[in-house]
Amino acid sequence: MINKLKIACNTSLALICGLAIVGCSEDVGKVSLGLFTTKDVVIRAQQDPIVTGVTCHISHVEADLDFSDPSDMSIACRQTGEITAEHLAKIDRSKNGEVVFKESKSILFKSLKVRRIYDAENKTLIYLSYSTKESSGSHHHSLSTVPLYNTKAWQWALDQNIKN
User: Fold this and answer.
1) In total, how many domains does the chain have?
2) Which alpha helices (H) appear in the chain, and where do they start and end?
3) In this structure, are residues 152 and 81 in contact, taking their beta carbons and an 8 Å threshold?
4) Average pLDDT of 71-85?
5) 10 Å Cβ neighbour count for 20?
C-alpha cells in the first residue's frame, strides 16, 4: 500500500513538473518553407527556468512527415525581466555550464539542446544551442549572449571577480 502511494505521488510530481516545463515554452511563430513542402520554421519563446529574467527565441525547422527534423537552428536571448544575484547564485558556473532546454528532433536520439554558460570575466550569460547529432559533416550550433551590465546582478558579478 505504501509503495503504491509513493508511486502515485512520484507520478503526480512528474506530471506537475512536466506541465510546468511545457508552460515555460510557447510557439510564437510558424513559417512555411514553401507550397510543396511539409517543412516549417518554428519560433519558440523559452524562458530560462532559473534566470527567469531571460527569454530565448529559438527557431528551428520542423519536418512533419519526416522521421528526423533538420539540425539547423538559431537562437537569440534577451533580458526580459529582472536578473538578480539570487538567480546567478543558483546556476552552474562551470566551463560546461548546464542544459536549460532540450527538445527531441528525431526518433534516432537527435536533440536540440540549449546550454547556459556563465562568462565571469565579461559578466555575461552565454546561451549555446546545438544539435547532438552530426548532420552534413557538422554539429550545427548557434550562440547568443546576455550581458549583466545594468541588472541587479551586476554588483554580485563584480564581487565574484574580486573573490577569484
Assistant:
1) 1
2) 2-23, 85-89, 154-163
3) no
4) 91
5) 10
Confirm whether 16 is domain-assigned.
no
Domain assignment of residue 94, given as a range:
26-163
Is 13 part of any domain? no
CA 121 – CA 109 distance, rounded (Å): 35
24 pLDDT band, cuts 50/70/90, is low
Grid cell of 159 as nine digits: 564581487
Q: Is residue 48 assigned to a domain?
A: yes
Q: Judge whether 3 lies within some domain.
A: no
Single pTM value for the model? 0.74
CA–CA separation, 153 and 159 (whole Å): 10
Measured over the CA atoms of residue 64, residue 27, residue 59 and residue 24, the dihedral's sign is negative
Which DSSP letter does residue 135 get? B
